[in-house]
Amino acid sequence: MSNLPFHLHPVAIVVLAALFFLHRVLVADVVLRRRALYAFIALLAVVVWPVGDLAANVSVSVATVQRLVIMLFCAPFLLRSLPIHLLVRFTRPTIIDAVSRVIVQPVIAVVFVMIVGSLTLAPFSVDGGAHSSVVRGLILLVTMIVGVVLWLPAFGLLPGTRHLSLAGRGGYLFASSILVTTFSFAWIFSKHSLYSALHHQHQLLGVSPLLDQQIAGFIAKLGAFGVMWAMGFRYFFKSDEEGVPNEETPLHWADVERELLRVDRKRARELRRHGRT
After folding, report:
1. 145 inside domain
2. Phi and psi dihedrals of 208, rounded to 5?
3. Is residue 248 part of a domain?
């Protein structure tokens, strides 16, 4: 990368370091801390030089690798690094609880990932990120949110939400891996480059802008299939080994506690309505 100017990216480094140490303050479990460490190392690797600079200004294929790492590695590892008591606390506010009940539904989660994830790689988003570090940071933040939403139905972590069976989680991952990569067909079959703000692909990577874009389409497909199918098969095999019925939905105390909280909130709303009338 001798022709790619070096940038330190101090803001990204400081923000990620602060979030990492905040996690260590909130979480004491060694295994959970290790998962967070892996996620933050991977996240740092794809947002600073050289990957971050190539993704922002040069190559849509590198940008695709960056998005896949965030969505398929960083997001699930960060989710699995949070203990249940933190998830209960974070989702306790009424508005967050209401949103979480909706967003964990498989169909809604997939539609959200398809629409919002495609927007982060739409030409206007990539062009905006190439000209503004603020826009680029917002796009990466949205990508992380998209990754979290993608994995929520598969993990069944949020209290008081629908938990899929092991077989259901595997089926969800297989189906979503196909649907969320539909935008890649536009790259593979396009006859011209869609990203005017990206340049120097040939000088730095040895490929034309169009070939770089077509490579991005195949990376998106193969990357998503590889990770999500591997996890899908893992859930299917685990379901067979444990003899878990396909229709079984696991229930935990946090789910019962959240339902009781919702009953109390509903009762309080009814009392306030009766008071006004």
Report:
1. yes
2. -80, 160
3. no
Rounded to an integer, what distance in angstroms lies between the CA atom of residue 133 and that of residue 149?
24
**Would you say residue 250 lies in a domain?**
no
User: What proportion of the chain, given as a percentage, has pLDDT over 70?
Assistant: 94
Quick: pLDDT tens for 116-156: 998 998 899 999 999 999 999 999 999 999 999 999 999 99
Q: Answer yes or no: is 133 within a domain.
A: yes
**Quick one: pLDDT at residue 139?**
96
| Number of structural domains found in the chain | 1
Number of residues in the chain:
277
Name the residue range of residue 130's domain: 10-187+202-243
HEC profile of the chain:
CCCCCCCCCHHHHHHHHHHHHHHHHHCCCHHHHHHHHHHHHHHHHHHCCCHHHHHHHCCHHHHHHHHHHHHHHHHHHHHCCCCHHHHHHHCCCHHHHHHHHHHCCHHHHHHHHHHHHHHHCCHHHHHHHHHCHHHHHHHHHHHHHHHHHHHHHHHCCCCCCCCCCHHHHHHHHHHHHHHCCCCHHHHHHCCCCCCCCCCCHHHHHCCCHHHHHHHHHHHHHHHHHHHHHHHHHHHHHHHHHHCCCCCCCCCCHHHHHHHHHHHHHHHHHHHHHHHHC
What tokens appear for 8 in the block? 């330190």
Higher per-residue pLDDT: 238 or 44: 44
Q: Is the entire prediction scored with pTM above 0.90?
A: yes
